[in-house]
Write a structure and sequence with these properties.
This protein has one domain. With 83 residues, the protein is mainly alpha-helical. The chain has helices spanning 2-8, 11-18, 28-37, 43-54, 65-70; strands spanning 59-62, 78-81. Helix 3 crosses helix 4 (43-54). The chain is globular. Helix 5 links the parallel strand 1 (59-62) and strand 2. The protein starts with a helix and ends with a strand. The chain has a two-stranded parallel sheet.
Amino acid sequence: MLYFGSKNLPLSTLQGFLSDFEMLSLDSADFDWAFNNIRDSDFEDALQIAIAVRNGCNEFVTFKKNLASTYDNLESIKIRLLA
């Protein structure tokens, strides 16, 4: 999110937007989930989804079309693409 946004928006705008959300940390269990559930050879995407799944998130929001379409059929979490 920050990488994508920082190319298009000032960091201060992103900081304000992100202040409305809880930031979740990466855990060793996330690596296990990502290794076992990786799709489309994008390990970073798998790690992001793993963190959300482990934390019991109901929804994962992304700007990445490929991530949204690759993980759209997970039973444990809804993937929503922001356009």
